[in-house]
Amino acid sequence: MTQETSHDAGPLVLLGPPGAGKGTQAKRIMARFQIPQVSTGDLLRENVARGTELGLAAKSVMARGELVSDDLVCTMVQQRLMQPDCRRGYVLDGFPRTAAQAGWLDALLEHELFDNSRPTRAWPIVISLDVDYNQLLLRITGRRSCPTCGRIYNVHFQPPRVDELCDLAHATRLVTRNDDRLEVIQPRLTAYQEQTRPVADYYAHTGRLVSVNGDLPVDDVSDQIYRVLDDHHA
Ligand code: AP5
User: Fold this and answer.
1) Ligand 1: residues whose CB is within 6 Å?
2) Which of 8, 101, 185, 206 gets the highest tally of CB atoms within 10 A of its CB?
């Protein structure tokens, strides 16, 4: 697949339930358009691993499969979006996830629309990855990731060349995420239905939501997303 950087990607939001492929696609968009992936799940997990105040507050909430409070997450996202690498655009993965977060993001972007020093002044393109429920379960239970390079695998769909070892960071043993345990998956899916589905409805009502078929193989999902981005900038 060729690299495409002829236009700025602007802000992009990837919506979808746990296991939909947001992280997988965000990494591909990052490589293709050279804009950073801003994953609230990854940022929170980093904070948990470092034992920061935010990490301590988030740890037990995440382990139960519930959502971390809007205040904590929005503050964390604001700090991340102020970093210089976000100036050309960014792909939000896992944010916004509640109506309050969506309202907060709109207010932030509205402010930026009037800030001539920001080259990314635009409303985000919101892409929803629609995936069948049983496929989600297979994707979540089969997920493994590399603690060194962050690459995501799946024992059913994208297995590593050597069982349980990363293809890139050789000899690094792949890990299973703490919240991919069976007893945590259902609360995560419930949180999505109750708190995040209304966010998709909100973007649909404001005419900003584009749905893609997330059931397809990874390359085919990426192709749909690239088409949406190309059409948007045409
Ligand atoms: P987060 O890390 O955001 O988790 P999530 O939304 O549950 O999403 P996942 O990471 O599980 O799935 P994904 O869609 O990224 O799929 P992936 O690409 O990995 O959040 C974790 C927790 O943090 C939350 O529960 C909450 O507590 C907290 N949190 C985070 N953000 C928050 C916020 N904004 N507010 C409050 N709390 C927040 O793919 C899954 C698997 O499928 C992989 O194995 C992959 O290889 C495979 N796969 C991907 N695409 C395909 C395909 N097309 N075909 C076959 N397999 C595929």
Assistant:
1) 16, 18-24, 40-41, 44, 61-62, 65-68, 73, 94-95, 97, 101, 139-140, 142-143, 152-154, 157-158, 179, 188, 217-218, 221
2) 101
